[in-house]
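Handout for the seminar on molecular recognition.
Each group receives one record of this type.
Step one: identify the two inputs.
Step two: read the structure output and locate the region that could contact fe (ii) ion.
Step three: write two sentences on what you found, then compare them with the reference statements printed after the record.
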Amino acid sequence: MSQSSGPALTRLRNAYTDGCILQSLADAFDCYDTRAEASALSSVAWLDKAIIIAGAPGEGKLDFILDIIERVQAEFLRQCIEDIPSDLPPEFPQRGMNLLSHLPTAANAIPRLDRPPSLSAFVSHMAHQPFILPGFIRDWPALNEHPWRSPHYLRSVAGPGRIVPVEVGDDYRTDDWTQMLMPWTEFLDSVMPPVQTMHASDQPTLYLAQHNLFHQFPALRADAIIPDYVYSSLSPPPDFPHYEPPTNADQLVMNAWLGPAGTISPAHTDPFYNFYAQVVGRKTIWLAPPDTSPSMYPYPPPDVTLDQPHNPASNHTNPSMSNTSQVDVFRASDQSSTNRTPFSAFWENVVNRAMCTTLEPGDLLFFPPGWWHAMRSEETSFSVSMWF
Ligand SMILES: O=C(O)CCC(=O)C(=O)O
Ligand SMILES: [Fe+2]
C-alpha cells in the first residue's frame, strides 16, 4: 500500500474530493429539474469516486458524502431497487470437509491453535510467527444475522447506483491485467450469480481486491468485530526491524477481498502485521518467512535510467512489484517438474520452510510483517485483512 502522503498529495486529494462533490451536486440539482435517472446515477458515482480514488476523505467529509448518497438514492433512485430473491445460498463447503492443505511448494502446515492466546502471550512471544485461530470469527454478524454470502444482503447495504473498483484478469503480474470501476450489482452478479454456476472461462476474472469497502458501505464495517490483539502496539519483529504501524489515526487498515473461485494473489510481502479473516468460502494460503527473500526471486526494482518499456502491471501494494515473487507457488508442481529449474534456490531454500493451509469460513489467520504470502480462492470468497 502506498503510504505516500506528502502535503502536496494531500492537497491534490482534497481538491479531487471537492471536485467530485461539486460535480455530484450539479447532477443532483439537475435531477430536481428533470427527474432523470441518469443524472442521479452520475451523482452517486461521483461521490463513490471521491471515496475510492481520493482515499478516505477526512471523517466529517466521508459522513457528508455518505449522507448525500443516501439522499439522492432515496429521492431519485427508489425505482431502481431490484426485487431479487433474499434466499440465503447454502454455506459451502460443509465445515471440516475437503481441506486442501497440501501444496508441493510448502512442506509445513500453518499451526492451528486450540485456544486463542492471552493478550500478554500474544505480545510477548506469539506475534512473531503465523498461526490460525479456527472458528475465531464465527460470531461476527457477517457470518450470522448479516450474512455476507447473501447477494441480497450485500446489495441492501449499498442501495442503488453504487460503483466499486475491481481488478480484471487472473494475475496482476501479467500484461492483460487491468483495473476498472463498475456497478456493485454487476460485480455481485458475476461473483455471486443467483444460481451457483461455473465461472465461464471466456470471461475475465473480476476481483475486488485490497479495497476499503467499509468506507463506502459502513454497515459492513459494523458486521466485523476487530480482535483486541490488533490494538496491542507491537514492536518490530527481529526479522523485520523497520516495521512501523500504518500512519492513519487508527493505525489500522482494513481491506476487503471479494472474488470468484480461482482468484490468485501471487506471493508478496507487506510491511504490516496482518489478521486475515475468512468470511465466505475457502481460501488456500501459502506463507514463507522474511529471511527466505533472497530465494524468492522478487521482480527487480524499476531501473529509471534504462529507456525500456516498462510492464504496466501494478500490484496490490507496490507499483514496482519488487515485493512480489516471480515464482508461482500455486502452479509450480512437484520437485521433478520442469518448473523447478528456473527457480532452483526457491526449491532448495524456501519449500522446506514454507507453510500452507486452507482457511474455512470463520477462521482467522495471523502473520507478521515481511512474511511472504500468496492466496488462492477455492470458491467464491470474501475475506477481510486487518493491517496494523
Ligand atoms: O486475499 C488475497 O488475495 C491477498 C491478501 C493479502 O495480500 C493481504 O491481506 O495482505
Ligand atoms: Fe498482502
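Reference statements: The first strand starts at residue 108 and ends at 109. The chain has two domains: 7-80, 108-299+311-387.
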